[in-house]
Amino acid sequence: MSTHLRLGVNIDHVATIRNARGGDHPDPWRAVQVVEAAGGDGITVHLREDRRHIRDNDLDVLMANATLPINLEMAATEEMLAIALRHKPHAACIVPEKREERTTEGGLDAAGLHNQLAPIVTRLTDAGIRVSLFIEPDARQIDAAIQLRAPVVELHTGRYAHCEGEERATELRRIADAAALAARNGIEAHAGHGLTFDNVGPIAAIPQIAELNIGHFLIGEAIFIGLDASIREMRARMDAARG
After folding, report:
1. Is 216 a known active-site residue?
2. Does residue 193 have an active-site annotation?
3. In this structure, is the dihedral angle defined by the CA atoms of residues 7, 154, 201 and 204, taken in order, positive or negative?
């Protein structure tokens, strides 16, 4: 098992800031170049149905120019499937999506949506795209990923990030148990949502987790210290926890 914990940087909220005023500043492509220089291992973007973050032309630019692997977060819809199949990103992470939510509020119910997800997972896999399912750290959802033959799960860390004390310790155990269960069944475990400098350590220390995807906090912190410094500090904290 590799000791290097990969850091995928979600650049959606660079686009969110741009979209607040229109125009083309700040440019998500410029953020990608910073991520590459700062030691990030991948780029994550969520092309939402309402295009509130990145837009289709952003994805065009990223796919044509980025040297880091692109992880496309997408809803399980025919529109998004067609876009993924056209662009063929390194990975596609299937996430739940509700138009009224501010951000992704929880994991995908892979167990309950098996029949809807199965053909999408198959078509993405057949196209050479590495499929990930964004799920709660729950044995039932891991079992669903096994049944769907998804090679990767991303464990939702939002509950862990937003609770404290014994509740946080319980949630951390759930995440660790889910990562271990995934690994025992040949599924690579990733994690993300709500991770910060202060809470990333215990998640990064879970040996079965291969990748963290972090966005909102890094972009927010960049306002104060710059994006390069924000990414490097997160990388250092992840490495310290894993080391």
Report:
1. no
2. yes
3. negative
